[in-house]
Design a protein that fits this description.
Largest sheet: none
Low-confidence stretches: 1-15
Strand content: under 5%
Distance between the termini: 67 Å
Order of helices and strands: HHHHHHHHHHHHHHHHHHHHHH
Oligomer: single chain
């Protein structure tokens, strides 16, 4: 933006010394901004304002300076003052919208960017920003339309492809997300961004094509052996492939870097429990609970009791969990399963029916209840 302002707006006019001075100060100010010398740049722009109170280039420059320092409220004041004196100034509109975006005020950002597009509806940078903002407010139709408009203008625009990948992923359209991420990978294969690899891996994870996911997460780890998303993805893929011993390997790699991660401690506990190593699983669950209450860690301990045949204790633990989370259908499934194993089918029916009385529909609950009532339950 700064270069454009310098090239288009600052032509010296020899007969007017003040205009010449403003031009020189502006050039210096924007050059200093490019060099990230913010304080010095501000001095140049403030000098301009001492010559011409509402100079639009100085106001935009000061807005840019504040925005570079993440001082968005101060930047908004400068951009707004510029627009009050110079309505339709594209640079002020652009900066103002970016500030609102940074403050997560996406509706305001969209409103400003659409004003900008009235003057320049072919600006790919602005179109992708508006598409991003619509994605953030979950307006799928408008977001997709703008991303596709960008691709019509520039077939392989990276920002539009990435945006479409995120958009479809956010709306659980994982096959479409995979299409755009894969296209992005093809375009950047020689200098691939690790985030593209983990995004493709996550699509496969969601589609349950875990073996394919492993390939992309392993490629990501080759680039960064400590990348959290790659380690998490690999652990979860191996969990999905029921290769718990491999899953544990990667959960523990994360815990080496972040030993107080409650979620990962619980996931590792689940993996150990599923291998039958109840002792180690209990240690991990308790470590998680020492940090803070975690329903899945507490459930894991209840399931260990069930696995060890301690059904009464498992039932007691599950009832405690249900009192705190009565809408969690899985708790009722495990509770009913305990009663089945205790040959108390009527108790199992009552447990499942108590969930249904909450008015929540659950296919898993209905199917289990139907099996028990038909006396064909095999658990």
């Amino acid at each position: 933006m700064s270069d454009l302002i310098i090239e288009e707006e600052f032509s010296p006019i020899p007969e007017d010394s003040q205009v010449n001075e403003i031009s020189e100060l502006s050039k210096k100010g924007y050059q200093l901004l490019k060099e990230n010398k913010i304080a010095a740049a501000k001095e140049m722009f403030l000098q301009i304002l001492s010559i011409e109170e509402n100079n639009n280039y100085a106001l935009v420059g000061l807005g840019d300076a504040e925005r570079k320092q993440n001082q968005f409220s101060a930047a908004i004041e400068y951009y707004s003052k510029c627009l009050a004196c110079h309505p339709g100034n594209n640079y002020a509109l652009f900066g103002l919208a970016d500030c609102y975006k940074a403050q997560n005020q996406y509706h305001k950002a969209i409103e400003i960017w659409e004003q900008y597009l009235l003057h320049d509806d072919q600006n790919i940078t602005v179109l992708t920003r508006v598409a991003d903002a619509y994605r953030k407010i979950r307006d799928f139709k408008k977001s997709k339309s703008l991303y596709l408009k960008v691709l019509d203008m520039e077939e392989n625009n990276a920002y539009a492809l990435i945006g479409l990948g995120h958009l479809h992923y956010d709306f659980k359209e994982y096959k479409d997300a995979l299409f755009y991420w894969t296209k992005m990978l093809e375009l950047t294969e020689s200098a691939v961004d690790i985030r593209v690899l983990t995004s493709i891996g996550n699509c496969h994870r969601k589609l349950k094509t875990f073996g394919d996911g492993v390939y992309y997460f392993e490629r990501a780890l080759e680039m960064d052996p400590k990348n959290f998303y790659a380690l998490f993805g690999l652990a979860d893929c191996y969990r999905g492939m029921n290769m718990q011993f491999r899953s544990v390997e990667y959960w523990n790699k994360i815990l080496e870097m972040d030993p107080k991660n409650k979620v990962i401690l619980t996931r590792a506990g689940d993996a150990y429990r599923n291998t039958g190593d109840y002792k180690t699983a209990t240690e991990y669950y308790n470590k998680a609970l020492d940090i803070d209450f975690d329903i899945y860690a507490a459930l894991g301990l209840a399931l260990i009791c069930k696995g060890e045949g301690k059904y009464e204790e498992a039932v007691e633990r599950l009832y405690r969990l249900i009192r705190n989370d009565e809408k969690n259908y899985r708790l009722y499934i495990d509770l009913a399963d305990c009663y089945i194993k205790m040959n108390k089918k009527q108790k199992a029916v009552e447990a499942l029916e108590s969930f249904q009385k909450l008015g929540i529909r659950s296919t898993a609950i209905s199917e289990m209840l139907a099996k028990i009532q038909s006396n064909n339950a095999t658990f």
